[in-house]
Amino acid sequence: MLLSMVQASKHSNCELILALDLPTKAEALQCLDDLGDSVRWVKIGLQLFTLCGPELVREIADRGYQIFLDLKLHDIPNTVAKAVESICQLPVDLLTLHASGGAEMLGWAAKARDSENPSLRLLAVTVLTSMDGAGLQSIGVNAAPQEQVERLAALSLEAGIDGLVCSPLELAVLRKRFGPSPLIVTPGIRPTGAAANEQKRIMTPEDARQLGASMIVVGRPILASADPRSAALSIRTTLETETV
Ligand code: C5P
Question: Per the confidence metrics, is the pTM higher than 0.85?
Answer without folding.
Answer: yes
